[in-house]
Amino acid sequence: MTPKEIFESNRPGSKDVAWCPGCGNFGIRNILIEAFSELNLKPTEVVIISGIGQAAKMPHYINVNGYHTLHGRAIPIATAVKAANPSLTVIAEGGDGDMYAEGGNHLLHAIRRNPDITVLIHNNQIYGLTKGQASPTTPIGMKTPTQPWGVFEEPLNPIALAIALGASFVARTFVGYFKESVEIIKQAIKHKGLAIVDIFQPCVSFNKLNTYSWYKEHTYWMKDHDPHDRIEAFKRAIETDPLPLGIFYINEKPTFEEQVPAYKRDKRPLWMRDPKIELVKKFFESKR
Amino acid sequence: MKVVRDDISIVLGGAAGQGIQTVEVLLTHALKRAGYHVFGTKEYMSRIRGGINTTEIRVASRRVRAFVKRIDLLVPFKKGTLTWVKDRISDNTIVLGEKENIEEEFLEKINLVEVPLTKTALKVGSQLYLNTIAAGLIFGLFGAPVEIIESEVRNHFKGKSEKIVEKNVEAVREGYNIGRSIAEEGKIVVDIKPDEKVKEEILLSGTEAVGIGALAGGMNFLSFYPMSPSTGVSTFAAQHAEEFEIIVEQTEDEIAAINMAIGAWFAGARAMVSTSGGGFALMCEALSLAGMAENPVVIHLAQRPGPATGLPTRTMQGDLNLVLYAGHGDFPRIILAPGTLEEAFYLTAEAFNLADKYQVPVIILTDQYFVDSYYNLPEPDVSKVKVEKYIVKAEKGYKRYKLTEDGISPRAIPGYGEDVVVANGNEHDEWGDITEDAEITRKMQEKRAIKKLETIKRNAPLPKIIGREDAKFYVISWGSTFHIVEEALELLKRDDVAHVHFSWLYPLNPKIKDILAGKTLIAVENNVTGQFADLLKKELDIRVDHKILKYDGRPFAVEEVYEALKGVIE
Ligand SMILES: Cc1ncc(C[n+]2csc(CCOP(=O)(O)OP(=O)(O)O)c2C)c(N)n1
Ligand code: SF4
């Protein structure tokens, strides 16, 4: 097993962590490092593409390749990174606002496209970095500075949505369960195809309802659930209280990179390739 | 009797869906193979059926590469064509076709040569053969061997049943014979000399020149969302994807398209997006990301008139300001605008080296007129295309944003070398981690917006001067108007007027100020405000004396530029 220390960043910028003390993001970071190490990955083989938000600061506090991009855009970028170099382990990471609001459209289409990447959503049911506005998963009735009358929009059910679209791998966990979360993330990374993991994560600063104890009290682990049964998966996905945790659904199908013509004969990543000048000449020949 | 010498402008007009394109393809290819210089361009309506679309085909004894207003031979496939082009018809225009396709009011006034197209088609077997007959008919006027167009027909219909191919060959021969007899009876005499050298040349469109240039430059990833008139380049890439073993992906929107291209470059690919103004508008946020993260990206933008959805199928050079100022914050970019098809090939290939070297967005500006025009040209020399890769290995302690003298930090990619690579769209330190430090912020802003920009400027090529450097008047053009201005100046025949063409639009090399100093400057631009003239003023404090502008969604015609220049100079 790879020692966990190799994933600890020594860069000067990694020292001053911008997360609030007690934030669930720390737990997710530790879960990730444990999962990488148990999977025997090397830092240079892993890439974390993040969007914007507190969750999206992950690449700065961990020693793997990283790209801190734009709000909601981690998925298309991660998709292309994997497509350009399939030997990399690619993770797209962001908050619930990042992935379900600004990036919602990309998530839908990533499910259709099925790149072999892992999408981790730090779901604290609130916007953290912009100080506590409602997110697409904020429960009805919660009052926020920008929804002082209380949220009345139906919260998004990302699990049901992903299953409805036939996503390749759909799971939910809670950061308070370390070992189980490591296991789920390992499964997600190993899974061939798009793996979506919604991770409940308390925001201690702005979400006073969905706390550590709230998640413990309002969740349970699915036992004897067959993730290959889509109807069962869907039934579990629409349960509201308690909320099930675990792998809901697995749908093996070809990945994006497997189907693009670029890798049919040549398995090298794109950066190693040179233009096919003889084909350019042949093209000109055909234009005579 | 009507005689057309050395240079004929043939216009075919009809409804979308009527198959004028078939005539155009057959004719231009056959004529080129017969040794004639050809030029083709089309204008079309934003609809799938009906309306009036026209194609202009120029055939000449010498090279012709520009749109002219003049019509020597008009072939209407539908009533309404003559009204649509009426300001292009003169006493010298010959209309070749059937009375049914000509509006009453024109019948008296035009030189009509009637041909029984429909009757002949029915004789061959069906109305469907009308197009092939028309192609044969026009080809027949030139008197080149019928076998040439026959083989074009076989080639065009290959994949169809044997019967369809043979019927079309019969149709083209029928048309050819009619054409020959019209010529022999002296009703229309076309006197154009073939040139053996043309046979060795290739026939290419703007779309193909950009597409094949990208492939020659090592493009191995293209993401796009369809939008006229840029889609052709994406279609081209998709159709060559298997052969060239590249990735071509139609995304959910332009935002995903450019973000994918950015991701692909981050992982070491050479990626491009092809779009139009409206699509580019959606890409501005990611353009800024590329600027901040110093992530290379190549964007092909085929302009059409805006604002908003504007005129979807028409042409304009109206998006220069968009690409100049798109994205928030200060960061450099490179803007290119090929003027010729050769240049489109070489510049598009080079765009990938430039993006790789300077780690900035490189934008290739074309427009509808450019991508939809084609002509014969000598085969580009592919050995001149040099693929320069600037990717380095991430050594231990690698700093993605190392501060350097010229503002360029060596770029490593994930998975190559011993250390990790951290890129960032937030302000960052040298390692790529977020920073809010005032000192580092200042240095990074200067690195991107000043040092790097200066480096690019210093290396920016100068505009091309055609004509005498000591001429009193300099006519300034950029991008697609190159050949139009070129031909207008040939007509003008004045050696005190030279042509200065810009295909590298930004950033401008400071030496340009000296080159243009003391001249009377006349800018020719296909937009309403003279965006490039404004750029010269802003960047180099160069004041253009006269602007010749056209902004009705149509390209300049040679005659229009010629008249306007005469107006300014004389
Ligand atoms: C295009 C754009 N719009 C808005 C923002 C401001 N913004 C930054 S983070 C954020 C939401 C963060 O919430 P979430 O994704 O749930 O992440 P968290 O901070 O809770 O981890 C927003 C709206 C932005 N950076 N970019
Ligand atoms: S704002 Fe919330 S989510 Fe963000 S770091 Fe603080 S506690 Fe964590």
UniProtKB/TrEMBL annotation, chain A:
Keywords: Iron, Iron-sulfur, Magnesium, Metal-binding, Oxidoreductase, Thiamine pyrophosphate
UniProt GO MF annotations: iron-sulfur cluster binding; metal ion binding; oxidoreductase activity, acting on the aldehyde or oxo group of donors, iron-sulfur protein as acceptor; thiamine pyrophosphate binding
Protein species of origin: Pyrococcus furiosus (strain ATCC 43587 / DSM 3638 / JCM 8422 / Vc1)
Thiamine pyrophosphate enzyme TPP-binding domain: residues covered: 56-199
A Pfam family recorded for this sequence: PFO_beta_C
UniProt-listed CDD domains: TPP_OGFOR (cd03375)
Gene3D superfamilies cross-referenced by the UniProt entry: 3.40.50.970
Cofactors required: Mg(2+); [4Fe-4S] cluster; thiamine diphosphate
NCBIfam families on file: PorB_KorB, PRK11869.1
Name of the molecule in the record: 2-keto acid:ferredoxin oxidoreductase subunit beta
Automatic annotation (TrEMBL), chain B:
Keyword terms, alphabetized: Oxidoreductase
Domain annotation Pyruvate flavodoxin/ferredoxin oxidoreductase pyrimidine binding: ranges: 213-443
Keyword Transport: no
The UniProt record lists the keyword Glycoprotein: no
GO BP, sorted A to Z: organic acid metabolic process; response to oxidative stress; sulfur compound biosynthetic process
UniProt domain Pyruvate/ketoisovalerate oxidoreductase catalytic: residue ranges: 16-177
InterPro entries tied to this protein: 2-oxoacid/accept_OxRdtase_asu, Pyruvate:ferred/Flavod_OxRd, Pyrv/ketoisovalerate_OxRed_cat, Pyrv_Fd/Flavodoxin_OxRdtase_N, Pyrv_flavodox_OxRed_cen, THDP-binding, Transketo_C/PFOR_II
Enzyme class: oxidoreductase
EC assignment: 1.2.7.3
Reaction(s) this enzyme catalyzes, per UniProt: 2 oxidized [2Fe-2S]-[ferredoxin] + 2-oxoglutarate + CoA = succinyl-CoA + 2 reduced [2Fe-2S]-[ferredoxin] + CO2 + H(+)
GO molecular-function terms, A-Z: 2-oxoglutarate synthase activity
Gene3D superfamilies named among the record's database cross-references: 3.40.50.920, 3.40.50.970, Pyruvate-ferredoxin oxidoreductase, PFOR, domain III (3.40.920.10)
PANTHER family assigned: 2-OXOGLUTARATE OXIDOREDUCTASE SUBUNIT KORA (PTHR32154:SF20), PYRUVATE-FLAVODOXIN OXIDOREDUCTASE-RELATED (PTHR32154)
Subunit structure: Heterotetramer of the KorA, KorB, KorC and KorD subunits.
Full protein name: 2-oxoglutarate synthase subunit KorA
Organism: Pyrococcus furiosus (strain ATCC 43587 / DSM 3638 / JCM 8422 / Vc1)
